[in-house]
Amino acid sequence: MQAVSVLLLGAGAAEVAMADRPRRAGPPADGGREGTGTAVLTRTRTRKPNLYRVLLLNDDYTPMEFVVHVLERFFNKDRAEATRIMMHVHQNGVGECGVFTYEVAETKVTLVMDLARKHMHPLQCVMEKK
Ligand code: TYC
Hints:
The chain is an alpha+beta fold. It has three helices and five strands; from the N terminus they run E-E-E-H-H-E-H-E. The chain has helices at about 65-75, 80-90, 100-120; strands at about 5-10, 40, 50-55, 95-100, 125-130. The protein is elongated, with a radius of gyration of 26 Å. It binds L-tyrosinamide. The site of L-tyrosinamide has 13 residues, from strand 3, helix 1 and helix 2.
């Protein structure tokens, strides 16, 4: 029977049992160990992305129907949910449209602000880190 040695890169001996499966993708990063009976186990750490709330702010002039439209169009809300969020903002001053990664949140804020400006409404849309 052939002896198989295991070379674990970037992890302590205690982590051997938790190591990912051996990876065999891409160019031979095995340093010429293929066929030598030496498995190279690497682990890729997954990281939680930073998340951002996108918020609508109340004002006295933007029509309610416009805010409902914004919530349907950019935040994929149905009419009932969009109306609920709009009324929450109207009564409380601020409300959450959704939670997104940085680039997605930034894009949504820009799309909302551009549409509001085009229609000359003072609606404000902002993002805040969770
Ligand atoms: N307060 C606005 C009005 O009475 C409606 C409104 C709701 C405006 C939500 C902005 O984010 C907003 N017409």
